[in-house]
From TrEMBL:
This is P21-activated protein kinase-interacting protein 1-like. It comes from the Eukaryota. Gene3D superfamilies: YVTN repeat-like/Quinoprotein amine dehydrogenase. One of its GO terms (biological process) is ribosome biogenesis. Pfam families: WD40 (PF00400). WD repeats lie at residues 269-292. It comes from Linum tenue. Keywords: Repeat, Ribosome biogenesis, WD repeat. SUPFAM superfamilies: WD40 repeat-like.
Length: 344
């Protein structure tokens, strides 16, 4: 399991979860750490051997996790990149598409092998807060500061649905089975049917929700200003269990390692990151049994973390060679000089 965390200090942090040879325990071994952007990192995503980060410098940076190498940057956006999501078919171990969103309401669709821009869609009138790609790869949902929910047809590359929510939603997620999706507005998380967007139930959290990740058996893990990690049963709307005081500061990111993304041997692991720079890995089985759960592994970055992404690497196939990608990006700089004037 590999983890990638972004920070306000422009640094990207990579970790590899490894077993300790002398003991029956785990450790977060550092993969890389360097200022990959010129401004704060706002979003991150990972799938298979690839990771990506989006920043307020209007760029997307790409990383090869097995070799801990930089693959270059994408320059299609002209505003802060606020959300990223990979689409990986169930039959493949390498992502097929990268979907990104920005602060001007645009969504970009990229082919991930190689990284080529396919389409830009205007999804919202204001900043996009979050987006989620349907497991089929045909649809995506996005929420923004225009208090609206948008549905994007990724096959045709256009917006197919747009409705006003009445209140700004900060995040949106699909369940693992894609039968439901979740939207968070302040302290509440709505559980909706995917087919008709009907509200099934509402999860009432004690404080504002800042991050969420779906789990197995209809669970949804949430974290935020209460510093806890809460597992919700989305069928009943009740709390299944809770890791209280998981961090000393706000929880800014959660990654669940499930069977669906390749972690067959470790289907109970959960990683979290907080704004005080600490990344922790938990075994949720211990959380269900113990009153005070202890993390399996921990790493401190001494940075203000803003996002967290994770991947179970099932193949070591590298994407486009770094030299080829750099040549392509150099050509893109020449074609779009205004988009790259702030970059190195």
């Amino acid at each position: 399991m590999s983890l990638v965390a972004g920070s306000n200090e422009r640094f990207i942090w990579g970790f590899k979860l490894k077993p300790v040879t002398t003991e029956q325990s785990l450790t977060l071994a550092p993969l890389f750490s360097y200022p990959s952007h010129q401004s704060a990192i706002l979003s991150a995503a990972a799938a298979g051997p690839i990771a990506a980060s989006g920043s307020s410098d209007d760029t997307i940076h790409l990383y090869d996790l097995p070799s801990a190498a930089s693959l270059g940057s994408l320059y299609q956006h002209t505003a802060s990149v606020t959300a990223l999501s990979f689409f990986t078919p169930a039959s493949l171990s390498f992502p097929r598409n990268l979907i990104s969103a920005d602060a001007e309401g645009y969504v970009c669709i990229f082919d991930a092998d190689p990284f080529v821009h396919l389409k830009t869609v205007r999804a919202h009138k204001k900043r996009i807060n979050d987006l989620a790609v349907h497991p089929s790869g045909k649809l995506a949902l996005s929420v923004g500061r225009d208090d609206c929910l948008a549905m994007l047809n990724l096959v045709r590359g256009r917006r197919s649905f747009y409705c006003r929510l009445g209140k700004e939603a900060s995040l949106v997620r699909y369940g693992l089975d894609a039968e439901k999706f979740f939207m968070a507005t302040e302290e509440k998380v709505g559980v909706h049917e995917t087919e008709d967007a009907k509200l099934v139930t509402e999860l009432q959290c004690p404080n504002r929700v800042l991050c969420a990740a779906p789990g197995e058996n209809g669970l949804l893990f949430t974290g935020g200003e209460d510093k806890n990690i809460t597992a919700w049963d989305t069928k009943t709307g009740k709390v299944a269990y809770c890791i209280e005081d998981a961090h000393k500061s706000r929880v800014k990111g959660i990654v669940v390692l499930t069977k669906s993304n390749g972690g067959v041997d470790d289907p109970y692991l959960l990683a979290s990151a907080s704004s005080d720079g600490v990344v922790r890995v938990w075994d949720v089985r211990n959380s269900m049994k113990e009153e005070k759960a202890n993390p399996l592994a921990e790493a401190s970055t001494n940075a203000r973390l803003t996002c967290l992404a994770g991947s179970s690497i099932k193949c070591r196939r590298s994407p486009v060679p770094s030299s080829d990608l750099c040549c392509r990006l150099s050509n893109e700089r020449e074609q779009h000089p205004k988009r790259t004037k702030l970059l190195r």
